[in-house]
């Protein structure tokens, strides 16, 4: 996997990925999974997507969902096992996260996950219009400093990109324990004509939705005394 060189000519506002691609050295079996299992499950976004994106899976999936920045993959693996006829695309540039989901796919013989080891903005651009029923963004990198807000994944252009690939009635779900990023997301989504926020009462965003699988960053937030918000937006 190649390391992206930073390009000083590209403005923050043009890019969606600023995190790490590599962490600690992979164990031998993890490296083998990256070398041998990932190529079988990786989406080839240098080729055109199938017109019916459900045919990414064979046989075609009933429905398609995407999780952006799945980290350790706890939520993605659990959802894929619960909804066995749905096809899941997991997007994560961090190679150690990729190794973790591959280990779960291998151990539980999960057949309905495909992977993209890069920037979700590139994946969104590749996917056909109205191809997904749901996009999950769970504890995205918060970029708390004002001068880094442009690095947050939620921006007008990524909201438009998500709106393009979601079906009418599809959902964008956002989980975050940083109040300022929740407010940022609410204000950006509320000025988009393409989404409506689904909360009717406080518990609709204070509590996780039914069946939610807590992630590593969710547990870290709880340990450190921060409460997460669970925001659901419907594509109109
Ligand atoms: C704070 S971690 C959260 C991981 C996981 N969702 C969790 O809750 O434990 C954010 C993750 O988003 C990934 N990420 C950051 N920018 C991304 C982008 N543009 N496309 C896809 N993933 C991205 C990072 O590599 C990182 O693993």
Automatic annotation (TrEMBL):
Record keywords: Methyltransferase, S-adenosyl-L-methionine, Transferase, tRNA processing
Keyword Ion transport set for record: no
Molecular-function annotations in GO: tRNA (guanine(46)-N7)-methyltransferase activity
Enzyme class: transferase
Reaction equation(s) it catalyzes: guanosine(46) in tRNA + S-adenosyl-L-methionine = N(7)-methylguanosine(46) in tRNA + S-adenosyl-L-homocysteine
Signal peptide bounds: none
Compositional bias segments (type: Basic and acidic residues): 1-17
Record keyword S-adenosyl-L-methionine present: yes
GO cellular component, as recorded: tRNA methyltransferase complex
Record-linked PROSITE patterns: SAM_MT_TRMB
EC number: 2.1.1.33
Positions that bind S-adenosyl-L-methionine: 67, 92, 119, 141
Binding residues for substrate: 145, 177
Pathway in which the depicted protein is active: tRNA modification; N(7)-methylguanine-tRNA biosynthesis
Region (Disordered): 1-21
HAMAP family linked: tRNA_methyltr_TrmB (MF_01057)
Function, in words: Catalyzes the formation of N(7)-methylguanine at position 46 (m7G46) in tRNA.
Family: Belongs to the class I-like SAM-binding methyltransferase superfamily. TrmB family.
Name of the protein in question: tRNA (guanine-N(7)-)-methyltransferase
Gene: trmB
